Amino acid sequence: MVKHKEPTIRKQEIVDYAMHLFLKQGYEKTSVSQIAKAVDVAKGLVYYYFESKEEILECVVEDMCQQHVERLMIQIDEHANDFYDRLLLLMDAYYEIHPYTETESSTRWFMQNAFVETFHKIYLQRIDNVLTQIVEQGQKDGYFELQYPKMMIIMTLEGIFGLSRYRQITRDQVVEMIEQSLNLPRHSLKEKGASLLTHFVN
User: What is the DSSP letter of 201?
Assistant: First the structure.
């Protein structure tokens, strides 16, 4: 017999089990029926809360991004002393949320187009306030001579993300890409990058 739960609790439970299945066997190979079975509810109840599997995916990614941005804000508050610190912490955090090398199953899921497209849409919405703060700080401190610094930061994020899908990127390469993309002084990030870009190898 299915236990009755508060709607918000039940909906979150569906999202949590869906995330587990997506990581274990991939988004494409996970059906709504499998999600319902994992939660121990009728398939119709899943559709009561979600119109489609795509909507479940959006909620899964929403949860991931929200938790990630909250951690990033804490990192910035605790460790960022200037514009360079904020920028590097953002870059490192963006790379961290794509754990391609953790497990074979998570690699398959994160590489799938459904996740990539949904992630881009939601993450860039969630990170917008952080980006705005970084750009405003950079402009205030006189680091930016770009007409569209926010767009250039996003392009740099996307570029690093795209490359990391197919090849390993070293810390020094990331630093140089950031400096060149944002027209920052050469070697301005090298020393800070060694301590703040923790998810890239030497």
Answer: B
Q: Which helix (H) or strand (E) holds 152?
A: helix 149-164
Domain count, the chain: 2
pTM of the predicted model as reported, rounded to 2 decimal places: 0.77
Task: Identify the H or E element spanning 62.
Answer: helix 53-79
Contacts of 21 (CB under 8 A, 6+ apart): 30, 34, 35, 38
Looking at the structure, tell me whether residues 67 and 36 fall in a common domain: no
CA-to-CA separations, 11 to 8, 106, 125, in angstroms, rounded: 5, 23, 22
Residue 8 corresponds to which tokens in the numbers above?
């918000």
DSSP secondary structure letters along 74-143: HHHHHH--SHHHHHHHHHHHHHHT--TTT-HHHHHHHHSHHHHHHHHHHHHHHTHHHHHHHHHHHHHTT-
Same domain, 148 and 67: yes
- Burial (Cβ within 10 Å: 0-12, 13-18, ≥19) of residue 196: buried
Structural domain including 26 reads 1-50
**Looking at residue 99, what is its pLDDT?**
43
Same-domain status, 143 and 46: no
Question: How confident is the model over 17-37, as pLDDT tens digits?
Answer: 998 898 888 888 899 999 999
Q: Is residue 201 part of a domain?
A: no
